[in-house]
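Progress against Task 2.4 (sequence-to-structure conversion) is shown through the following example record, which the project officer requested during the mid-term review.
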Amino acid sequence: MSIGNIIHLIRKEAILELRNKAILASMLIYVIGASFIVYFAFQGQIEFQVWAAIFWVIILFSATNIIGKTFDKEVRFQYNYLRTVVHPIELIISKLLYNAILIFVFELVVFLEMLLFFGVDIDNMPLFFLTLFLGGIGFSNLFTLFSTITSRTGNVVLLSVLGFPIILPLLLLILRLTGISEVDVLSTDTNVNIGAVVVLDLITAALSLVLFPYLWNE
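Structure tokens generated for the chain above:
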């Protein structure tokens, strides 16, 4: 495994995404449109718990659309070529890192949009951004792995069947951490929830690293 190859793959993925502006533009339109609809539905007045729920629903659908087909072009057009020049571990690590960065950027965009429309006060910003970071990693790990499975099997239904039981605990934990970040008082549950999210991220990353070579070379 070469770090240089991983960085090269991440750079290549970013260049391809920038060239194909349709996906990024459609996601930005979705994010802005969803925030605008929520703003008019609630007339700019919204409780923090409702704000947090809507925020993570938008992030979840964005992550699904962004990463759900992340391996389609590789399987259709570059599969034989990539198998000969790239080690599967290098490929999956580059995908996990790139998707995590992309999701985190979209999280920041959605946060700024929601902040602009609703002006919600978050007292513990470090905890909130840590939640965004850990949640983005979790979404990247899960949906990248599921994208591999669906692209190799051709069964899109597997994405929802396999994804829901695993994504639900992650969503509950990050919603809880988001709620805690509203106030600047840390409880004993904070470290427990952070540790649980970290454990889920590590487990899903380990599953991706272990299962991907078998799925890719099948």
